[in-house]
Amino acid sequence: MLGAGGGLGHLGIQFAVHLGMEVLAVDTNTKSLSIIQSVKSNLGVVGDRVHISDARGHNPVTILGNIGETDPAIHATERGVDVAIMPPENQAAFDSGMKQLWNHGGMVIVNFSQNRLQVNAHDLVFRDISLVGSLVGRNYQLREILLWSSMEYLLG
Fold first, then answer.
1. Using one digit for the tens of pLDDT, what is the confidence trace for 59-82?
2. 28 contacts 54 by C-beta, under 8 angstroms
């Protein structure tokens, strides 16, 4: 998850790990990274599935090293994450997310950027990357999520 320490990101981390997924939580500022660390700590045992990466000064390949994706015998596009969720509203985050995806992966845009995002057609065609936008959060869905997370918190 890119921008994992923000308003949507820290919630996405919690949902993903409770659904049994491994999460690569990426951000670029100290405050956001400390929020991610706090969320990870509060998750208890399932927090072990959260891998935090400070993207400042690191390229996408280095970031993937945080989840053990470093085998040089495997081409860079054959290793990486299955899905990148992108709350940030900038081209640099989008480009980094695309580079962290393995072939046949998917990018989910969940922001309202005022600027256009530039997509490399090569990624979509030759790497078979799926790109989708999502506006999730109808009132009944949010109520269910809050009820579910409250019960999880109360039951430990």
1. 666 666 655 555 666 655 566 788
2. yes
What integer pLDDT is reported at residue 60 of this predicted model?
63
Tokens of 62: 């280095």
All domains of the chain, ordered by start, with CATH?
7-155 (3.40.50.720)
Question: Are 54 and 30 contacting, i.e. CB atoms less than 8 angstroms apart?
Answer: no
- Give this prediction's pTM: 0.72
Among 132, 113, 149, smallest CA distance to 3 is for 113
Residue 88's SS3 state is: coil
Structure tokens at 54: 């400070």
CB contact set of 20 (below 8 Å; sequence gap of 6+): none
User: How far is CA 33 from each of CA 30, 123, 151, rounded to the nearest angstrom?
Assistant: 5, 29, 27
